């Protein structure tokens, strides 16, 4: 009797639980899923037209993609985003990897304090960082320059490199460096031929994080960029604030595809790091 | 011997040094200068040094001597030539409302006056120059160091007699704003926990292949541009948007009864919960993965119903994940700027938006610095707590 009573209750609980989870996943994904078809809207609206719901091919078009592709402003924004993003990433990754190597050493003095300082750009409210950087960089003549934005974005990206590389290093088997040293390799050669190949996936995913930070950053850009440094997020901001047009949705779809590619790469690297470093 | 002990220390420190220096120059020093700006305001002191010097001998009652007027006339004209007059006038205006136009208009007319005596000339241009309160305001504005911005940021003011009092009721905005920011962030944290807990549980105890897929569904929004996600919420929630269309189509609301879901606090809360949810799911998932699912089965076979088994067995083991996720979400929420700015409308603005306003529109940089300083202080306390409880280097990123 008690058995028959608990089984349905268990089933009902399970169904409720799975339904709730399904709704939460819908909440997570709906915003991304809705944007993609709307970007093919042939009308200048932000909502599904009747034609779209009937799947009428007339209701869909590439006009917003064509508009973005033919618009110089978007092309220049993409150029700026890539230039600033790539340069900031190289800077953040090299400095961040070196620092992570130091922080992972047991001999590191004041490790907690230094780690706290190096991670702080990640948790400081962006508006405060941006305001401070605006004043300081203006005084140095670096506002409204690419260099200023590169330095700012590199600073914001380094915590992500430090965290991912430190995490990879914590799984690193220190006996390997000792073995290399025992076989006569100097510290630099040990790093280049033993440590670096093994932590490379961690370094790369840190770099991708740093790039994603720069590629998505808009607050510092709002404060510091002039006309010549407008980036993709800055264009999106202008589009949402000033003239809402479905062209924004085409750009957004492009960015979603880009995010999926980035995520795929990072997950692939994580799996590689997981199998090769082991320890 | 000492050298042998210290070499690894030096090497480790040497590796970290370049980044420490880089963060110092590109990030920490700029932040510090912003905070200094909130207590150090030399604009009037630099523009009117002689005037302030002369005012030192003035007893604070009645109109000051001709020497003060002569110095003020000369230095105000100079400030106009050097294009600092506007900022001087704004600064004085913040001590005593209405003085901006007095200063700016008077200087325009002062240019036409070839020579003194300046006292009559200035009082003739504007009777306010004969008012002791005008000169008191200039003297107060001439202090380089000031706690005025911090007083302002917590709705206090310094009265002319030097005592500290609350702002008049219609100017008390910032304490409420801080409270609102905290309350909203707390609400968003609670929502993230409520939504994040079940799906983290689902992912943590699913079969490996399915878990990978479900985790990817959490991570795709995490990697997608913030602006994209905010834009999508506008598309979904606006009055002519997808959700309202859907509600009208199924007949829940009439076409004239469309609900304002965005450009208000609702928009801010929904969009921010969506954006911050992955930051809650990831630490929860990390912790839940280590809990053997057999424990709950064991509890059930020992007679505990689900609520009791959950409360006594499962939940206590997830506390560290709950703490890590909640702290992180709360820290990120109280400093949020972009999303409230785009979807918050008038009522959904948080403290960061007012900092931006004072940076870009009102140009009251000192107040922006003070509001930022208080916000930064709150974040710093929470960050230290996070470091204590979780350890900053163990933050999980995707």
Task: Describe what this molecule looks like in 3D.
The complex is a heterodimer of chains A (279) and B (398). Chain A contains 12 helices and no strands. In chain A, helix 4 (72-104) packs across helix 11 (232-241), helix 8 packs antiparallel against helix 9 (187-216) and helix 11 packs antiparallel against helix 12 (247-277). Chain A has helices at 2-38, 50-53, 63-70, 72-104, 111-123, 126-139, 146-170, 174-182, 187-216, 219-224, 232-241, 247-277. Chain B is mainly alpha-helical and 398 residues long. Chain B has helices spanning 2-39, 43-47, 49-55, 66-81, 85-95, 99-110, 118-125, 132-141, 148-153, 174-204, 208-223, 226-237, 242-249, 265-288, 294-301, 306-334, 338-343, 351-360, 365-389; strands at residues 156-158, 164-166. In chain B, strand 1 (156-158) and strand 2 form a beta hairpin. In chain B, helix 5 (85-95) packs antiparallel against helix 6, helix 5 crosses helix 8 (132-141) and helix 16 (306-334) runs antiparallel to helix 19 (365-389). The longest helix of chain B is centred in the N-terminal third of the chain and has 38 residues, at 2-39. Chain B is elongated and about 100 Å long. The model of chain B has no long low-confidence stretch (mean pLDDT 89). The interface between A and B is large, with 92 and 88 residues.
Describe the SSE topology.
The complex is a heterodimer of chains A (279) and B (398).
Chain A: H1 2-38, H2 50-53, H3 63-70, H4 72-104, H5 111-123, H6 126-139, H7 146-170, H8 174-182, H9 187-216, H10 219-224, H11 232-241, H12 247-277
Chain B: H1 2-39, H2 43-47, H3 49-55, H4 66-81, H5 85-95, H6 99-110, H7 118-125, H8 132-141, H9 148-153, E1 156-158, E2 164-166, H10 174-204, H11 208-223, H12 226-237, H13 242-249, H14 265-288, H15 294-301, H16 306-334, H17 338-343, H18 351-360, H19 365-389
Helix pairs in contact in B: 1-19, 3-4, 5-6, 5-8, 10-14, 10-16, 11-14, 12-14, 14-16, 15-16, 16-19, 18-19
């Amino acid at each position: 009797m008690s058995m028959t009573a608990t089984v349905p209750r268990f089933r009902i609980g399970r169904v409720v639980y799975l339904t709730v989870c399904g709704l939460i996943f819908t909440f997570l994904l709906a915003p991304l899923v809705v944007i993609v078809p709307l970007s093919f809207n042939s009308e200048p609206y932000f909502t599904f037209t009747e034609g779209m719901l009937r799947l009428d091919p007339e209701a869909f078009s590439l006009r917003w993609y064509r508009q973005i592709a033919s618009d110089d402003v978007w092309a220049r924004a993409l150029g700026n985003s890539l230039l600033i993003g790539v340069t900031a990433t190289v800077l953040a990754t090299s400095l961040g990897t070196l620092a992570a190597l130091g922080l992972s050493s047991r001999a590191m003095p004041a490790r907690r304090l230094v780690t706290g300082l190096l991670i702080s750009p990640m948790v400081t409210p962006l508006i405060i960082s941006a305001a401070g950087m605006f004043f300081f960089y203006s005084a140095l003549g670096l506002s409204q320059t690419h260099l200023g934005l590169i330095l700012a974005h590199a600073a914001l990206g380094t915590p992500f490199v430090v965290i991912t590389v430190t995490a990879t290093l914590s799984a690193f088997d220190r006996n390997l460096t000792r073995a290399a040293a025992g076989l006569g390799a100097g510290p630099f050669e040990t790093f280049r031929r033993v440590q670096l190949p093994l932590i490379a996936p961690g370094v790369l995913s840190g770099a991708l994080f740093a790039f994603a930070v720069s590629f998505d950053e808009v607050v510092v850009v709002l404060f510091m960029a002039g006309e010549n440094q407008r980036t993709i997020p800055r264009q999106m901001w202008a589009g949402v604030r000033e003239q809402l047009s479905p062209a924004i949705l085409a750009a957004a779809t492009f960015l979603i595809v880009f995010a999926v590619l980035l995520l795929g790469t990072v997950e692939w690297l994580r799996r590689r790091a997981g199998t090769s470093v082991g320890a | 011997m000492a050298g042998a002990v210290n070499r690894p220390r030096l090497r480790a420190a040497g590796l970290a040094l370049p980044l420490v220096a880089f963060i110092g120059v590109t990030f920490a020093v700029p932040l510090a200068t912003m905070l200094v700006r909130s207590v150090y305001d030399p604009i009037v002191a630099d523009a009117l040094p002689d005037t302030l010097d002369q005012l030192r001998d003035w007893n604070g009652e009645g109109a000051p001597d001709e020497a003060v007027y002569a110095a003020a006339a000369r230095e105000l004209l100079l400030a106009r030539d050097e294009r600092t007059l506007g900022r001087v006038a704004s600064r004085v205006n913040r001590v005593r409302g209405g003085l901006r136009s007095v200063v700016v208009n008077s200087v325009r007319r002062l240019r036409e006056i070839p020579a003194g005596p300046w006292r009559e000339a200035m009082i003739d241009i504007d009777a306010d120059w004969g008012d002791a309160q005008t000169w008191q305001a200039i003297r107060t504005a001439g202090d380089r160091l000031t706690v005025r911005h911090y007083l302002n940021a917590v709705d206090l003011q310094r009265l002319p007699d030097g005592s500290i009092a609350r702002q008049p009721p219609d100017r008390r905005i910032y304490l409420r704003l801080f409270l609102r920011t905290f309350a909203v962030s707390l609400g968003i944290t609670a929502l993230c926990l409520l939504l994040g807990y079940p799906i983290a549980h689902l992912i943590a105890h699913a079969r490996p292949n399915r878990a990978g897929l479900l985790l990817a569904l959490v991570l795709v929004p995490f990697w997608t541009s913030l602006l994209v996600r905010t834009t999508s919420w506008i598309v979904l929630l606006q009055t002519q948007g997808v959700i309202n269309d859907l509600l009208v189509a199924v007949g829940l609301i009439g076409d004239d009864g469309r609900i304002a879901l965005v450009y208000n606090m609702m928009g801010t809360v929904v969009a921010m919960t969506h954006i911050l949810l992955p930051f809650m799911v990831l630490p929860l998932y990390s912790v839940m993965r280590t809990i053997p699912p057999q424990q709950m089965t064991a509890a059930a076979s020992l007679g505990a119903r689900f609520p009791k088994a959950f409360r006594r067995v499962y939940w206590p083991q997830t506390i560290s994940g709950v703490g890590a996720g909640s702290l992180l979400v709360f820290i990120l929420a109280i400093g949020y700027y972009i999303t409230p700015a785009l979807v918050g409308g008038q009522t959904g603005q948080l403290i960061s938006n007012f900092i931006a306003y004072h940076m870009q529109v009102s140009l009251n940089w000192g107040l922006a610095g003070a509001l930022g300083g208080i916000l930064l202080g709150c974040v710093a306390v929470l960050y230290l707590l996070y470091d204590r409880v979780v350890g900053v280097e163990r933050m999980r990123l995707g």
